[in-house]
Fold this sequence. Notes:
Elements: H1 3-22, H2 25-80, H3 84-193, H4 195-201, H5 206-243, H6 249-257, H7 263-267
Helix pairs in contact: 2-3
Amino acid sequence: xxxxxxxxxxxxxxxxxxxxxxxxxxxxxxxxxxxxxxxxxxxxxxxxxxxxxxxxxxxxxxxxxxxxxxxxxxxxxxxxxxxxxxxxxxxxxxxxxxxxxxxxxxxxxxxxxxxxxxxxxxxxxxxxxxxxxxxxxxxxxxxxxxxxxxxxxxxxxxxxxxxxxxxxxxxxxxxxxxxxxxxxxxxxxxxxxxxxxxxxxxxxxxxxxxxxxxxxxxxxxxxxxxxxxxxxxxxxxxxxxxxxxxxxxxxxxxxxxxxxxxxxxxxxxx
Length: 270
């Protein structure tokens, strides 16, 4: 197959497809009905023309018949008047008129037959046009109903697809809502347990926390031992000072001048 032939075939196929999309069967039926009406009108005009010719010929036949009757009377009157020559002339003319009348009668019969045929054809065509009009209106109504049903189905299909998309959007929204609720619940639990504070302050180390607690406990123990040692060292001096207070102001002064014991040394057992 040549290139041009293939191009022509493709062009015709595309043109046919475009025409098929553009074609409306209702418009085609109306156009066909209009064409039939025009044809029927032409047939009716033909019948009218034949009838007019027949009527005109009928008038001519009547004129010839009256002329033949007149010549017959003139021939009789001439013969009664003894004018045989005039009577012969009148009869000769009558014969010519009779010949013309016979020809007119023959043509009249032909036109009458043609008129009857055209009238019957017009009646048959009229019946076909009426039947086509009824069929056309039925088809147009069916097509309009089918077109409306198709549009409804297409609209319903579009709505179904749109509702499907909406359903997916709703599902995604519900999933995100559930995820947000779960996250909020988890954050509430973390805040209640204090884990969130640890996460804010830094990474949680159980060993370091235990060491910190032990170090804090040892510091408290050292301070407590130091206080006990201070109290123990102050109690004997207070007793001795009370006993030597009358005569021993020098001793008290000596005691007051003596350096205080080192708290750190007193608090640490050897």
